[in-house]
Write a structure and sequence with these properties.
The chain is 40% helix and 30% strand. It is of the alpha/beta class. It has one domain: STAS domain (Transcription Regulator spoIIAA), CATH 3.30.750. A five-stranded mixed β-sheet has the order 1-2-3-4-5. Helix 1 packs parallel to helix 2. It is globular, with a radius of gyration of 13 Å.
């Protein structure tokens, strides 16, 4: 059973957007996650932080959506960072080595602070 999925853009600052993701990330909701995140990139927010604190489940479709979002952000000379990653997804990111491409932070505020300190965004 799929919980209702929501992506809410909580914060934007130039080329940065922080979005809160809630509900299940599965075959039924992954396309919406990808579509909404890519819309943020197309609007000029090439650096995305996805706060996953309210994600209740993530299957391979949700995982693949995150990979696709990362690829599109990277192609736009941007980045994707995650915050409050659920334990099972965190283990999957580590097992696949994607934790080296998708930095994970304990909170959205920590992710925002890390983005601010990042040398790749100093000129942005």
């Amino acid at each position: 059973m799929t919980n209702t999925f929501h992506l809410t853009c909580q914060h934007t600052d130039g080329d940065l957007a922080l979005a809160h993701v809630a509900g299940d990330l599965d075959v039924a909701t992954a396309p919406a996650l990808r579509t909404q995140a890519l819309a943020l990139i197309e609007q000029g927010h090439r650096h995305l932080i996805l706060d996953l604190a309210a994600v209740t489940f993530c299957d391979s479709s949700g995982f693949n959506a995150l990979v696709g979002i990362y690829r599109c952000a990277h192609a736009a000379d941007g980045s994707l960072a995650l915050s409050a990653v659920p334990d099972r997804l965190d283990r999957l990111l580590h097992l696949t080595g994607l934790d080296t491409l998708l930095p994970a932070h304990p909170t959205a505020n920590a992710a925002l602070a890390a983005h601010t300190r990042s040398p790749r965004t100093d000129s942005a």
